[in-house]
Structure prediction request, 132 residues.
Amino acid sequence: QMQRVFDLFPGADFLATTSRRTPPEVKDLVENGPFRYKLIASRQEGNPIPDFLSLSDYLFVTEDSTSMISEAVSFGQANVEILPLINSGNANKVQRMIAPLREQNYLHVFDNSLGDCHRKIDLQSVLREVWQ
Prediction:
């Protein structure tokens, strides 16, 4: 999937971060990939996510990163692309979270093509409704 993303954006600046739970083989891909900036969370401090969301045209998030998906659909300007994991065929809680967000055009599940999904959830309105 990463190679396909690189192919879709020749000459682009790529930025990457991992989480503390990122598997070692994925960390290696990030460390050796063509990224202008990379943060390996198990070795470095910091949170570049707000900057990524503000600066990026497209944000690619792995399907299992629920907190990152939540941030991406509620902040910034980036089109949100979800990188699907190998699936067992059984719907899980993450897929149940993603399905309505996809249906409402907040995100696109990456299928080797790009979506136009930069719509954001207005959390201020949601919280206002909850607290009324």
About this structure: Residues 4 and 71 are 24 Å apart (CA to CA). Residues 93-103 form the longest helix (11 residues).
